[in-house]
């Protein structure tokens, strides 16, 4: 019972932090990604790389990921929060109606996760050849950032609107659909090395024989420790932690549990302060 109460408490804390970031930094992820587009454009023109606001946000978030894992994705990204909200709503509709929406099989999930690297590469190439405006005009996350910041999108963003709608449908079918399969910023985050202070590990010796509860609970279908190449996919949603009946999942090197309220609040406060005041 205590475990259930603790889980509910940590989930509530995560949701509160998500809502705060959703309203304070609705476009942090698209600002960070703007730096990637700017870099591609600058490289193609032979222009020097500048450390403007987008580049500073991007570099800070990448450095933060190295230290704390993808905490930004799990707790602070507005588009990730949108995905969580839509999926939560879809689950509640399925529960109430007794109808199950189709789910993407685990094997397909693992292959589809590679699509985001193609998206990242494709966007980089388009920006390199001077098509940055085309990318912005057709990008669902740019449109979302505009809408959430209460800015009017331009009339030529119809394709972006259709893509955003399709993305929302995907979000209703699969947990963190966009994050896992399509997000170019997520692709970049997943390639970052993560220090032991931000790495989740499983104490396999204490595992129940043949158990795969954590893998089934994980939106990225990760089995920590057996999936080294895909560990960058971990978006720090804590679903595995809460699902494990033995409390076997922890940070590789930390006095704190990954969802300890003190540790979560410290990380969120650092993110908030740096994004707000330093950058
Ligand atoms: S993967 Fe992309 S959209 Fe998802 S939470 Fe991370 S930055 Fe945001
Ligand atoms: S369930 Fe666990 S391993 Fe999977 S993404 Fe969430 S925190 Fe990472
Ligand atoms: S749910 Fe817990 S016991 Fe089961 S495999 Fe995962 S870490 Fe081990």
Describe the structure.
By secondary structure, this protein is mainly α. The protein has one domain. Helix content is 63%, strand content 2%. The chain has 15 helices and two strands. Helix 5 packs across helix 10 (158-173) and helix 7 (115-128) crosses helix 8 (132-138). The longest helix has 23 residues, at 2-24. The radius of gyration is 19 Å and the shape is globular. The site of one iron/sulfur cluster (SF4) has 12 residues, from helix 13.
Helical proportion, percent range: 55-70%
Order of helices and strands: HHHHHHHHHHHHEHHEH
* Individual helix count: 15
Count of all domains: 1
Query: Order of strands across the biggest sheet?
Result: 1-2
> Which stretches are low in confidence, meaning pLDDT under 50 for 5 or more residues running?
none
Class based on secondary structure composition and strand pairing: mainly alpha
Would you tell me the overall average pLDDT?
91
Shape: globular
Radius of gyration: 19 Å
Largest sheet: 2 strands, antiparallel
Bound molecules: iron/sulfur cluster
